[in-house]
Amino acid sequence: MQNIRVLAYNATNERVEFKEKWGGQLVKKTLKRSVTALTGLAMAVWSVGGSAAFATTTTKPHAAHHSMKRASYSQGASQTQIVLGTSGPLTGPIAAYGAIAEGENAYFNYVNATGGIHHRKIKLIMLDDQYQPDKAVANARALVSDGIFAAVGTLGTATNQASDPFLLRANIPVTSVATGSSALTVPVVPLRFGLEPTYTLEGHVMTRWAIMHNHIKTIGVFYQNDDFGKEGLNAIIQEAARYHVKVVAKVAYNATDTDFSTYALNMKRAHPQAVFEIGVPEPTAMFEIGMMQLGFHPQQYVTYVSGDPIMFKLAGKAFNGAYTDGWLPLLNSQKTATFRAWFKKTYPNTPPTLLALSGWVDAQVVAHGLAMCGNTLTTTNFIKQMNSIKNWMGADTSSPVTYTPANHFGIDAMYMLQANGKTQQLVPKSGLIFYHQVGSSLN
Amino acid sequence: MTSERNLRMARLLVVALAALAAPFVVMPLGSQMSYILDMSVIFCIVAVALNLLTGFSGQVSLGHAAFLMVGEYVSSLLTLNLNWSFWIALPLSAVVTGILGFLIGLPAVRLSGNFLAVATMGFSFAVPELALKWSGLTNGSSGLMPLRPALGSYVLGSDQAYYFLILACLVVQIIVIKNLLKSRTGRAFQAIRDSEIAAQSSGVRVGYNKALVFSISAGFTGIAGSLYAHYINFVSPNDFTVQDSFLFLAMIVVGGLASIPGSILGAIVINTINQLSSSFGQYSIILVGAVMVLAVLLFPKGLVSLRVPPHARKPRHSSRGSARVTREVESPDVP
Amino acid sequence: MLWQTILSGLAVGSLYALSAIGLVLIFKTSNIVNFAQGQMAMLSTFVAFQMLTRWGFPYWLAALASLVFALVFGFFVYIVFLSRLKRAEVLSQIILTLGLYLVFRGVAGVLWGNVPFTMPAAVSTNTVHIGSAVVTWYQLFIMIVTLLLMLVFYAMFRYTKTGLAMRAVSQNQQAARLMGVSLTRIYGATWAVSTALGAIAGLLIAPILFLSPSFMDSVAVKAFAAAVLGGFSSLPGAVLGGLVLGVMESVFGFYISTDLKSTFVFLLIIGILYVRPQGLFGTREVKKV
After folding, report:
1. Which residue of B has its CA nearest to C88?
2. Are A257 and A316 in a shared domain?
3. Considering only CA atoms, which of C234, C281, C202 is closest in space to residue C24?
4. ipTM for this prediction
5. Tens digits of per-residue pLDDT, B36-67?
6. What residue intervals traverse the membrane (chain A) (predicted)?
7. Is C257 within the bounds of a domain?
8. A10: Cβ–Cβ under 8 A, 6 or more apart, which residues?
9. Chain C interface, Cβ < 8 Å to A
10. CATH of the domain at A389
11. Angle CA(B248)–CA(B253)–CA(B256) in degrees, nearest 5?
């Protein structure tokens, strides 16, 4: 019962750093412990089918906690266990992105099966927010009550913007946020760490590369009408302006659209040499098919969000020859073998996609930070260790991971790929292109 | 007669005590519970407003998600961009949303049932689109961050303090609506619901009253929007969608149409289930759906039908709400 | 270009029209808007998908099984849920379908996950030129199926005994019962048939929008709007409503703005309804005092 929220581990050797600052009430430790049981009771009474909740409320006496006298802990960490939490769209309109949380869960299963982090097991609490900010806030509060050590891979810009303040005030680190929006990493919030490349970075990398290598002269942008699409669009416009390349069409789509032929028609009218597509897989595929049906075959540059082999299935021939950029290794590469095996083991019915791999990587980075903490599992030490991760290639990424106190981007390099229709594979086309090489509009 | 009055008073007292004690009862259960309580009361305001429109006046709206968002944005922009006090922004968000509600209510003068539902649903689609389009004003998806209000130097920072602000708004709303329903205007609303033609022939200005009730309902929903914005401290274009409009309808149906206690019960039950379901992962929406299905099957007249009203022996026509969602159906009395 | 926008609009509009037919059928007999219609179509489509790709059955057999499943499923939903609320408020019945929507959606997510699948198409997706515009054979096929289904059910309502019984029930349940019409049988049959219609819509739409638990969401909302635009009790009206909606979206998206598309479309719907409050094909109800 991984996802039942009721936890009842003993809180004796927690050094509670967490104070509820709202209104200044201090939640006493003793109160907290009895409350856990009470919450469990209330949950069981309130929730239909919550009988399982009872089963998990029995407090298990803590095993010898005197052996490690020098260890110190913040909330959520103990000698035997580290509790982490995540909130994401497990149901609802973009439930496909629930794969990220599944990837995280698969990785922690792998860690636990191979001895844990310094013999501590990871417990991941997965909550569903349906991509709604108000539910994300409720989940943040639930996670704090459950005493998580850190949040990992929480998805979405609006959801994070709404829920993070509560986590941050409670001194809970928010790590590997699952969005490429730079709104969460610029300016740097000490307790919050990004990981995915920002849409700004990718806009610059793709545009620069397209201009340098394929000598494109005109650009059309098809983008999702929100922070994701607009951030990519702005970066493309800026980079193009640097080389006096014209952006001749900007076509926005809404996530709820069903007709993409009109957008294809708009693009065909402007007739750009290269079309940049900053959207999620299904709309992007429908747009590509629409252009193909109109007999319009420009060069295509697809965001990493849709640079997934699943596009060969969705868009078919229309995806052939499209360029994309990446920060993860190829799904069929040797490097991802462990991921594929453990994801299959955890979720036998779900295909291992790039989204799931990104969740796996989210978890790897956090686990690395935790491992570096040794026996000093305090929030302060964790942040210190995270900020010291430099050019780390231990995660299953293709780009190194770097954090400094002034830079919480995580990934700052990407490489270009091209879709090969014959082999149905994405083929690398460039080495790593670093953030500082393209220059950026951030910082 | 007097015993009935005593019973009424006693019940009111119990409800009042429960409402005052609620935040302190849930406080030891953790901050998620305090949050769910506060959000429930915000949705109570929406449900009572929607029930005035749908239950008491017979008009369906799928636009209330949009009214909430308008309230959110008006209040946030006034306090953030113009530095106005929250205490002015709160009523103003009601005024602006109310005016907008009047405009949206104008087509309602000629529409009813599904036709009205679709017309108002359009509004739920339009507001997020406009909020994204006018990103210069609304900051697009990056959102606005309105602050918690303060009474003098005391910031209503805690869930408990904020609860009493929301509760006060709900109480004022209930008093206003109760009196409204007893007034000439309120009786006109209910007459229109029961039969437009009969109402018209007895001198009720149908068009004006239909737009008016839309406006009042929207205004109260705008207040809920403002309270939400300053509670969550974050406002973005996808805060409330058409799905939420449906959820609000579910609240009043599950609770009980044309009933203020029903609206409150429905809002609390649906919101609590909805928020607590998050720990069931993939099964969360199945749980919410199942609760809705069971509630409607077991209590077709709403949860409020569970209690025996003090005036049960004295049936009143108006207490039997009937929302004309569709064409006038001959009420079949065949079992 | 205008001809192309109109043709593209007709192509997507026929998806709305197709999904609206089942919605109207239920409404015509029982006055209920079935908000679970799209999700029931989605589940039926997944049944075909399961047989087709996981168990290797041929397309026609999978499609047939999906239709049979839909017939049983629709009847089941009526008997188990809706029939218990015969005497309740119409709004309660609608909220019941909303609850079912959530349950069905959740069940599909648990059974098949949320990663989109490609669904094979019944006919070729190659393009064909009509004048200066391009459309696929598949889109033409959908338009033809939509029109055929509309005509078949229109004729059934008008000329068959069952159709007469359905109309009688929708006008006066009590009188219909006195005439020997079994309400349960008529309602059950309506739910079964309109769910099967939903399955056809799902099977035809999934190859275009990709199959996932949420694939019918947007279409279902548009189908509702289309049905209302057409008058909600008229099958030709629903089809026309769908086509008008599709063309409006397409023309607005191309000539005016893509990011305010739904705003414009709904403004226009409100405008049309203001002029014709009973929809394009609806008849004005005579209200009794």
Report:
1. B300
2. yes
3. C234
4. 0.91
5. 999 999 999 999 999 999 999 999 999 999 99
6. none
7. yes
8. A33, A59, A60, A61, A62, A78
9. 1, 4-5, 8-9, 11-12, 15, 105-106, 109, 112-118, 127, 134, 136, 208-210, 212-214, 217-219, 221-222, 246, 249-250, 253-254, 258-259, 261-262
10. 3.40.50.2300
11. 120
